[in-house]
Design brief:
Strand order of the largest sheet: 4-3-2-5-6-7
Strand content: 25-35%
Helix content: 25-40%
Order of helices and strands: HEHEHEEEHEEEE
Largest sheet: 6 strands, mixed
CATH class: Alpha Beta
CATH topology: Rossmann fold
Number of domains: 1
Mean pLDDT: 91
CATH architecture: 3-Layer(aba) Sandwich
Number of strands: 9
Length: about 180
């Protein structure tokens, strides 16, 4: 990939949600999460790398005591199509009896998020909530996927990037949610 090619990807992309749309969604999510979790002393896991920008902005808007750390699981490894789940950093905390909030960038088919939830449940978490910045609209969700508790924005079934989500590991820093032209 060259800088010119990557700049063309952003230039040609369709902006699905502006930075203002994203910020408004995060503000709304912060209100909803606060109403549900403010008295639970939750442990908040950010799923890296995609969830980092979403989590950074959201955590600053959660005005209640919480613990924050990260996990790293991926199915993409720089590709545009997901494969098997690969743990880079699994949960390392004692989850027995804890309330968790798992933050991720996107809910696509749900395999990654469901595997994380199942792993945390097996480690003894008492209650597990999930929040994603965006959810793709389609009918390919994994069997048995639990609905996400807090969803910021809906997007069509296209390859998206920006605000933490990548295009071949680039453009996580794009200031909005974009869809690659033709994908």
């Amino acid at each position: 990939m060259t800088p010119e090619t990557l700049n063309r990807i952003l230039q040609d992309a369709d902006c699905l949600h502006s930075a203002a749309d994203v910020e408004a969604a995060i503000t709304r999510l912060a209100r909803e999460i606060t109403a549900q979790l403010s008295a639970t002393l939750p442990l908040v896991y950010t799923v890296m790398n995609g969830g980092q920008l979403f989590a950074a902005r959201l955590l600053l808007a959660l005005n209640f005591p919480l613990e924050a750390t990260y996990i790293h699981a991926t199915r993409y490894r720089g590709d545009i199509k997901g494969g098997e789940l690969h743990w880079k950093v699994p949960p390392a905390d004692d989850l027995s009896g804890r309330t968790l909030l798992i933050l991720d960038d996107i809910l696509d088919e749900g395999a990654t998020l469901q595997a994380i939830v199942n792993d945390c449940r097996n480690r003894g978490a008492r209650q597990i909530y999930t929040s994603v910045l965006v959810e793709k609209r389609h009918d390919r969700k994994v069997d048995g996927l639990e609905p996400c508790h807090f969803v910021g924005l809906q997007v069509p079934d296209r390859y998206i990037f920006g605000y933490g989500m990548d295009y071949r590991e680039y453009w996580r820093n794009a200031p909005g949610i974009y869809a690659v032209k033709g994908l």
